[in-house]
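Dear colleague,

As promised, here are the two records you asked about, laid out in our usual form so they can be pasted straight into your sheet.

NAME FIELD: protein one
SEQUENCE, THEN STRUCTURE:
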Amino acid sequence: MVKVYDYSAGSDTPMALCLGFFDCLHLGHTEIIVGAKEAGLKLGAEPTLFTFDVSPAEFLNKSGEGEIFTLRERLYRMDELGIHSAVTVRCDEAFLSTPPEEFLSALTDRFNIRAIVCGADYTYGAKGAGNVGSLRAFCGKKNIFFKAYELKRDENGEKIASRKIREFVKNGDIRSVNRYLPLPYIIMGKVVHGRHDGRKIGFPTANVNLEKDKLKPKTGVYYTNVTLCGKKYPCITNVGDHPTFGDYSVNVETHIIGFDGDLYGRTITVEFMDKIRDIVKFNSKEEIAEQLRKDVMFAREKFEND
């Protein structure tokens, strides 16, 4: 369970703070997380992630597409990566217009910060006017341990960046997404009642509505995994609408292979592993049932080989 500290409230807990947005916790971010854990051990401080309630780009309406990981998903993944506390800040006009020096002063006044780690391209304050150089100088004056990590690059020498991962998600290229993440891409949500069409043809599903601030993956049928009561199950997940049944509402609908139980009202985490196919309209329920049997076979084989 992640302990969440509100930025406006502060805390006396000694912290080794990771500064950034950490929108999808990619491989570059995980190096910073490891650095905070190491600094925390040496300094007797709690490794802590700094993050926003929503993406600054979303607040400024620069993309309007949503976040790769919502705040809830970021907290879930960071907990698995060994960071069990976070400082969350409300992203609004007042915060984004804060001058760099004022932001750092407020941060160190409100929190007991022993260490700060970040990426080499980190910027902060109004219009990103603060940078690693000014942050290093500030930490030196305050006797705060500081380290900036060089940018993580892929096999082609290109920076591992959230914008690239975002495009992979939008294109449904889950295998490429997962190459840049330490843990698979996820969608979290509460299971709600649907039309029960899947159950009628022998493929019951757990239906989850996408959160409004979640970047929508490309519509399609995916091979996925879900862990329930400590056991991992292979799944097939439909992201999008259901044209065969005349249902054009968009949701995430997961058939959990080998599981038979009531999940309504529970929050589940669907791990995406690979795309199987595009969504198509079938001529009959028999046709879609036959295709779903093939999809299940694909997912079973992948699961056994993973």
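NAME FIELD: protein two
SEQUENCE, THEN STRUCTURE:
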Amino acid sequence: TTVVNGQIPAPLLRLREGDTVTLRVSNRLPVSSSIHWHGLIVPADMDGVPGLSFEGIPSGGEYVYRFKLNQHGTYWYHSHSRFQEQTGLYGPLVIERRGGERQHADREYVVMLSDWTDADPERIFAVLKKQSDYFNFGKRTIGDFLEDVREQGWRRTRAERQMWGQM
């Protein structure tokens, strides 16, 4: 896994609209890394996408992200380097309204959904480039086809399969 401060997902960052934030990121990975602030409007060199206007954070290096928060809402941050996002480098980001909450709440929860696999993400990517539906476990089988023929008849089952095949 690739973790931030020892946790996955990475820690919740709670910031305030209008503030200028300074985040110093130390890369302790053996490879280059980055942090992309997903959905935030930031200067190009703060966007965290290596190869555009940012070289990435070298192994053992640091990078200081500094930008003004011109919006509020719930976002997320993640790596844009190789497959570090898929191995755990992502986390929630909440930017609170400058004027306070719109609606008062006794308690707030941040829910972050993700999926996980122990398979190498580079292998998964290579497989999907060759066959995009490879991991689609919901595919219909010959057993499903024979059951449909028993229940609906050959003609109706064939017509339905052709219709789905055309879509």
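A couple of things worth noting about protein two: The first strand starts at residue 13 and ends at 16. DSSP finds three helices and six strands in the chain.

Best,
R.
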